[in-house]
Amino acid sequence: GAFRNGVKETVKVNDPELVTAFRGLDQQSADMLVRVLAAPAKALRAGATLSPDFIVRNIVRDFMTAFVNSGSALFSPIDTAKGLVSVIRKDADFQNWMKGGGANATMVALDRRYMQESLAKLSGETGLMERGWNVVTSPIRGLRLVSELAENATRLGEFKKLTGEGKAAIQSAAYASREVTLDFARIGASMRAYNMITAFGNAQIQGLDRIGRAFVDRPMNTTAKVAGGITLPSVLLWWANHDDPRYQELPHWQKDMFWIVMTKDHIYRIPKPFELGVVFGSGVERILDATVGQDREAFDGLGKSITQVITPNYVPTVMQPLVEQWANRSSMSDRTLIPAEMEKFLPEYQYTPYTTELAKKLGQVVSAFPGMRSSAVGPGAPFGPIARATTSPILLENYVRAWTGGLGVYVMQAADAALRKTGALPDPVTPTPTLADIPVVKAFVVRYPSASTQSIQDFYDQHATTKAYYDTWLAKAKEGDTDAMARIQAAGGPMMFVRLDAIKETLSDHSKLVRDIYKNPTIKPEEKRQLIDGLYGNMIQIGQAGKKMLTDSEKALKMATEGAP
Fold it and tell me: What's the CA gap between 389 and 404, in Å, rounded?
């Protein structure tokens, strides 16, 4: 039907094939759109779950989740180890677990087509497909195998424990093993469509649902396990760490997502289970910061961390790096992507000391294409955001990270190392590596000192806010717009007149010096490490001083305002 001059007219089509074609147009368009939107989500799920960092961290998180959810009185690391042995050996317990329906509950299984792959290759295989060494035909398959071994170890450990203790028959024990962490195959039609375009949407909802059911089904048991396995370690570690200035400088997101273990030379981090760890671990730590530690900023960022773990991500995976580019902010670490001093640079020169040479070269090559550089920096260019995304090394790496996860980053770093070794890319002398630079190990190590500590970021954020108010107020003062000046001053408060531009410039100068040291080929690696760490230490002290000045000024202005007649 259609409207002509405001009157609805209906046309009857007698050709059934034509009717079918027209009716199928919307479905085909929708399917094509979903496939386009689903590609980054699928790539991120694979890149994140197959990353060695994720695999080793996930073992710890799975164990802590199983500790709370297990139907047994106590689930220990020994149970996970026993499960891993059974998975590798494919013993009788493993076979019973498979028969009971315990398999295919892993995150990796979401993007696997077991039946299709098996049926397609069955006739051409040797008949030994169940053997691990026969299916590892590519690095990706090898990582999938390792990832599934790691995830299934905890599930099979629960199965062995339940059947060994006589608490459940094979089928019910297999079902319980799927639920001891998260059953990723527990998904409906609507959620499957949502999960196609949002990489971990189902995992977030299933995590909350599993916690809720655990408290409803076994309230006393679950509460005791949460208190003993999550809250108590959090309290003890907080008590051991809270007076250490290094701990106080760690970004909020790190302390929210990890248990921090401080030593004299290194800072280690142990992953917390996502929902339980943030709410019942980090939440308690922040309460202690506010009460015992008398920290006025104790709850800064906690709401964001809780929101991230309890609220499903409504932004499709394909859009995540675009949103971050627009905001110039990492959604995970809540850190600025492109530093303020680099925003005025041509995109191809926006990189940090940790940016790969490959990303730098790609930025230079793409910038050389006709019209790319002018589109990236020109006002009103329709393809400006795309040009900036493909020419800025920082943004390039952020897109790789956002769409392919840790595995994509490792691939990029491996390609960078290979090209540097062959001479295709510059191979600068780099500082002596630390534990935070070693693959897989870095998953459990905090990089410190660095330029991303909490004081430095807080100072930059506060300075940017007060500067925006002050610059606007000054512009309106030059125009003589007293009404606007009054409104701006009322909104910004007296803090907008506290100018600490010199401290901000000093931090920028230190950042530039760090980059210069990285590029200097005449300085030895161990000397570079000492110089850079020393500069980072100075930056932390400067950030602390600037933040303190802002806080002291705010207190003084507040007292003066309250004491004024």
Answer: 16
How far is it, in rounded angstroms, from Cα 83 to Cα 76?
11
Task: Give tens-digit pLDDT for 248-302.
Answer: 999 999 999 999 999 999 999 999 998 899 999 999 999 999 898 888 777 877 7
CA gap 456, 543 in Å, rounded:
4
Report the length, in residues, of the chain: 565
Instruction: Give the distance, in angstroms, between the CA of residue 138 and the centroid of all CA atoms in the same chain.
Output: 27
Give the number of other CB atoms < 10 A from CB of residue 61.
19
Phi, psi torsion values for 268, nearest 5 degrees? -105, 155
- According to DSSP, the β-strands at 267-271 and 2-4 are unpaired
Q: 326: how many CB neighbours lie within 10 A of its CB?
A: 10
Give the tokens for residue 51: 């990353």
Which tokens in the block code for residue 45?
């799920």
Bridge partners (DSSP) of residue 2 are: 9
Q: What is the pLDDT of residues 24-40, one digit of tens each?
A: 544 455 567 777 888 99
Out of 24-38, 441-455, 497-511, least confident range: 24-38
Joined together, the tokens standing for residue 107 give: 């995150």
CA 65 – CA 405 distance, rounded (Å): 23
Residue 201, phi then psi, degrees to nearest 5: -60, -45
Residue 156: both structure tokens together: 């099979």
Q: What secondary structure does DSSP assign to 339-363, as a single string?
A: -GGGTTS-GGG---TTS-HHHHHHH
Residue with tokens 């030379």: 265
Inter-residue contact 289 to 242 (CB < 8 Å): yes
CB atoms closer than 10 angstroms to residue 543: 25
Q: Which residues of 152-175 are buried (b: 16+ CB within 10 A; e: fewer)?
A: bbbbbbbbbbbbeeeebebeebbb
SS3 state at 338: coil
Structure token pair of residue 6: 């405001």
- Which amino acid would we find at residue 179? E
Q: For the whole model, what pTM was predicted?
A: 0.83
From residue 565, give the alpha-carbon distance in Å to each of 489, 559, 561, 562: 20, 12, 9, 8
Q: What is the C-alpha separation between 52 and 42, in angstroms, rounded?
A: 18
